[in-house]
């Protein structure tokens, strides 16, 4: 399983807005609404009634919000395309992705080929995470 739970915090707003526009077709006022939803978000902490300073998030999407999972799926749709190009089966939901590959257990060549395909997929996922985030 590919666990991307911390990835919610690293979503680049510019890339997400671009994906909403280019991949999903959101434009005009709707795109501006998403931009305003993401910009100037702040967070702070409170412990025993003492509040920290608030700071602005320039990356990340609100987890637990109505839109959080949907926005993350749109943001990471390129990742799912990378996986789909390599493997015939992958199940994805928000920040949890399971990669599947079947092979004949009694065939050493089949196992070797399966390992090679999975290694290639993982390498392409790694490159996507470095380059496209």
Description:
- The protein has 133 residues and is of the alpha+beta class.
- The chain contains 5 helices and 7 strands.
- The chain has helices at residues 13-24, 28-38, 68-75, 77-86, 108-131, and strands at 2-3, 41-43, 46-47, 50-51, 55-57, 89-93, 96-100.
- The chain has a 3-stranded antiparallel beta sheet, covered by helices on one side. A two-stranded antiparallel ribbon has the order 2-5.
- A hairpin with a 2-residue loop joins strand 3 (46-47) and strand 4 (50-51).
- The chain is elongated.
- The two termini are 20 Å apart.
- 12% of the residues are buried.
Key structural traits:
two-stranded antiparallel sheet, single chain, alpha+beta, elongated, 133 residues, 17% strand, 49% helix, 3-stranded antiparallel β-sheet
Strand percentage, roughly? 15-25%
Helicity level, as a percent range? 40-55%
- Oligomer kind: single chain
Estimated structural class: alpha+beta
Write down how many β-strands occur, each being a DSSP E stretch of 2 or more residues: 7
Q: Which overall shape is indicated by the principal axes computed on the Cα atoms?
A: elongated
Q: Round the Cα radius of gyration to an integer and report it.
A: 19 Å
Biggest sheet, open or closed, and with what strands and sense? 3 strands, antiparallel
The chain-level mean pLDDT equals 81
Give the helix tally. 5
Order of helices and strands: EHHEEEEHHEEH
Query: Which residue ranges are poorly predicted, with pLDDT under 50 across at least 5 consecutive positions?
Result: none
Strand order of the biggest β-sheet: 1-7-6
